[in-house]
From TrEMBL:
One of its GO terms (molecular function) is double-stranded DNA 3'-5' DNA exonuclease activity. Belongs to the DNA repair enzymes AP/ExoA family. It comes from Sinorhizobium numidicum. It comes from the Bacteria. This is Exodeoxyribonuclease III. Its cofactor is Mg(2+); Mn(2+). Keywords: Hydrolase, Magnesium, Metal-binding.
Length: 257
């Protein structure tokens, strides 16, 4: 089984890119983020034509998450992150697909920091940690996939001082990601590539793609039970270089049956 996560940065604007990648890569499960579309604007028909069932939670102009499943229909188990009923931002969806519980998450960016946006980011991550701990304790095979908006370590960003004040690299942000690993979740990319330079995001500005000035923001975390089935993992970097591309590249894992 191949499971992928892809911050599409506007699902309708980049629908051609998405369909081309689905046709080429043929993932069995896809977690999408930053749909930037309401529920009614989600391109269900085009995705079904490509061979995928889908569940989603949209939001006008911002956020939005979805889970796609090839030749099947995901079974929704949750459409929001628990812990704050007043939070109306569409940043989390969870579904069962072929015996695996899959979540697609889009964590807050948190900039500028310090300030209310950074406080929201940390509070959201605290809620994610609580929910993740509960999922981990079930013993079920679980994948937490998406754009965490955290650069976990200094090696996950190109050499620069320009991000020193950015919320993505702050000690509090990195501690929130580390808390998940401390619970026992396995970072799939680092499991397969423990020492390599890995980037999943390249800003559109200042020729960062051309200079390979990237960051690793997109992560697939697996429960320990599922990690035993990990066969391979990777980043479809070439997708970032296509015309009209998202500023993120898809990240994927392959699991043994």
């Amino acid at each position: 089984m191949k499971i992928a996560t892809f911050n599409i940065n506007g699902v309708n604007r980049r629908l051609g890119n998405l369909i081309a990648w689905l046709t080429m890569s043929k993932p069995d499960v896809v977690c999408l983020q930053e749909l930037k579309a309401t529920d009614g604007q989600f391109p269900k028909a085009a995705i079904e034509t490509a061979g995928y069932g889908a569940v989603w939670r949209g939001q006008a102009a911002w956020n939005g998450v979805a889970i796609l499943a090839r030749d099947s229909e995901p079974v929704v188990t949750r459409t929001e992150l628990p812990g704050d009923p007043s939070d109306t931002q569409s940043r989390y969806i969870e579904a069962a697909v072929n015996g695996i519980l899959v979540s697609s998450l889009y964590a807050p960016n948190g900039n500028p920091q310090p300030g209310p946006k950074f406080a929201y980011k940390l509070a959201w991550h605290a809620r994610l940690s609580l929910h993740a701990a509960a999922l981990f304790e079930t013993g079920l095979p679980v994948v937490l996939a998406g754009d965490y908006n955290v650069v976990p370590e200094p090696r996950d960003i190109y050499p620069t001082r320009s991000y020193d004040d950015n919320a993505l690299v702050q000690p509090e942000s990195r501690a929130a990601f580390r808390q998940l690993l401390d619970q026992g979740w396995i970072d799939a990319l680092r499991k397969v590539y423990p020492k390599e330079e890995l980037f999943t995001f390249w800003d559109y500005r200042r020729n960062r793609w051309q200079r390979n000035a990237g960051l690793r923001l997109d992560h697939i975390l697996m429960s320990r039970k599922l990690a035993r089935r990990l066969k391979d993992a990777g980043i479809d970097r070439d997708v970032r270089g296509r015309e009209g591309a998202s500023d993120h590249a898809p990240v994927w894992i392959v699991l043994r049956d």
